[in-house]
Request: fold
Amino acid sequence: MTVALSIVVDGIAYGMILFMISVGLSVTMGLMRIVNLAHGGFAMLGGACAHVLTMRYGVPFVPALAASVIAVIVIAIPLERLVYRHIYRFSELEQVLATIGIVFVMIATVNLFLGSTLLPIRMPPEVSIPINLGFKVLPLHRLIVIVVGLLMVTGLYLLVERTRFGIFLRAAVDNQNTAASLGIDTPKVYLAAFALGAGLAAVGGILGAELLPIEAYYPLRYMVLFLIVVTVGGMGSIVGSFIAALGLGILDTAGRYLLPDVGTIFFFLAIIALLALRPNGLLVRPS
Amino acid sequence: MTSGLRIRNLSKNFGGLQVARNITLDIPTGARAALIGPNGAGKTTFANLIIGALQPSSGSIHLDGKDISQLAEAARVRAGIAKTFQITNLFKDLSVRDNIRLPILEREHRTFRFLERHDGDAAIEAEVEELLADFRLLPLANRLVRSLAYGQQRLVELALTLSLKPRILILDEPAAGVPSSDSHLIVDAIKRLPTDLSVLIIEHDMKLVFEVASRIIVLVNGAVLVEGTPEEISRDLRVRELYLGAGHG
Amino acid sequence: MILISTIDIVRTSLGGTGKLLPVAILIICAFAAFWLFPYDLGFLTQMLIMMVFVVSFDLILGYAGVATLGHAAMYGCGAYAAGLFAIHASPDPLLGLAVGAVIGALIAFFSGLLLMRAHGLSLLMLSIAITMVLQEIASKARDVTGGADGLSGISMTPILGVFEFDFIGKTAFWYAFSVLFIILVVLRVLVASPFGLALRGIKDSPSRMRAIGTPVYWRKVTAYVIGGTIAGIAGALSAQITSLVSVEAFNFALSADVMVMLILGGAGRLYGALIGTLVFMTVRHVAASIDPFNWLFVIGFMLLAVVFFLPDGLISLPRRVAGMIGARK
Reply:
């Protein structure tokens, strides 16, 4: 029983990280119909930035987090305006080629300035304080991750359901042409969604650095993981990504706990079964 | 046993919505029938039921006495039912000639051959050239379909479908989107179709329908309202009211 | 008799001298590379093996239009099969290739039954997931595969009992080239066949193919099996020539590289696959030897440049240049 609860808690913390990083990818893939393999790069850039600020300049964690997220958004905006805007029009295969090219450039950039070693992020010592949940002792950090993840999904839900931007976003995900003909400025919606997604990925990358360590090859190493979350959740679906991220987080954690030898096989077999039954994601029925 | 297409009590439900109601219809060999009706009358659904893109909820379809109701789309093509697409659906990155050649190869069960050339069979090549000539497509034969004008693409669409040597040919709005200056090309092509072929035309354009059809079926709300010769249909008050009425003030 | 008729078919399908030109160029290039870079034969051989692999993917992606990111599945299985066969059964290279081919075909068939029903993103992910499962199995089955240390101890007898593998890699080079050459000839016949035309039709419009009575699914499975067979041969070649198989044969990066090389060169034309592999591997090799730390910049910017300026791949470069010159006149 305690094992099961431990798996669930650890799995949820892990799933929250996956959600933060993947949700922006899901929205941009659903919205712009783009296969963006470089999305994990924003998580890495955020993490790398936080590493430099906390380790080299001794900036405290919270301001460093904020500054890193802003820095990533500042990088994402011109990238969208100058590069991605053209990529939207490409065929799927050209998108793969172009965004892999961007991944390589991101890796090479981090590698050039920071090398290919692990880039740890210094967190305040309080986050490793053990918290006793009754059935499990957990570092505070995990709880923070879970709370931030919950806040994020609530915030996104409200943003999408309750605001004008959300209405525009949903309209554009449903049908770009209709959205454009309704007078919605789709390029602006794209830009906002892209920048927001990049910023969320940066938060996820920094908070998740303990589980998915930051290093130059990060976007390539975890690319498949993020894409799986999006595929299982269904492109463009925030709720779908959330459920998928938590489910996959728990599944992966369970595999590691219970079947340490063959956990990964079990994880990918489950993915195969899921995608075979629900090719368009958990929440979308096969047509 | 009757030759041609025999449809009995064909119905189709989507959830609670009945899109085809008890349709009973005969299209004998060599017929030139037209299916007309207002938008949303279920014309395209009906065509999809016949070709097997949709499975009927109840009722039966017989072709030359053989029950084809349960066959999948590909099997019905082999049984002799072919349909042109309302929105041109061609192999745009292949040449006009390959667009005609491919269905013939398929019809002759050749596409599972790996070691011969696709243009290596003299009989098939002769048939390809004949079809191209019939549809006045020879000058365009080596062009990619992508590069053709829309009216020309409609001709390729017709030729491609005919190359399957169907027994029943369903033309789904053959002149849709074709500029009126080119629509005579389509009408001429339809008039030249082999006489032993049954043709069912689904069309909005009354002029075209009255020019080529010998029988007209009027479909309203998924059910047959009336069926008759063009003269009978044009005299029928219900049709005038329901359908032609709009056009004739 | 069968042999003669096969030769006739090959001859007719290769057609006149115009069609023999690329074949001649290919052979001349091989000799030129052999004489010009005698110290790089190992790298050149790697390139030839990769060409076999990429060209097999061209049949699937370039002709049938099926985009997967798990082509390494068949390559890796072919490599392990050939390696294990050499260690436990027979060190004959050609038999080993045959074993690699059969295993590649079997893996492609069984995974293809599932994959060819999927589309788009879920197809990409399914193909990745299948490869991951195979990789995990290979790394966990230590007793059989050597796990993370890799499968070593592969040694081969001379090819056809005559050509012994030498230290410089001359035999390996010509062995790999001969295999590539034969596969190219086979694929050229195949893509010119009715089956090849049907694959192009499926890529262009699967719905129309169904409407003309094609069992699209089974055609795609067949193409996938043929591509998998050749990928298995590529893996077997690699195992025999490097005498080593590692779990990295199943790496996602390898599947991605194959796709990148193919699109880079130009998908849907067999020679595009060769050019893409040549350029990608050469640039990577040269860039990595000049600056072992920052060569990824070169690759990254090269990919972006190709997508932005040469959307049909490098193979369209001559036509583009000709077009520009023509436009200026």
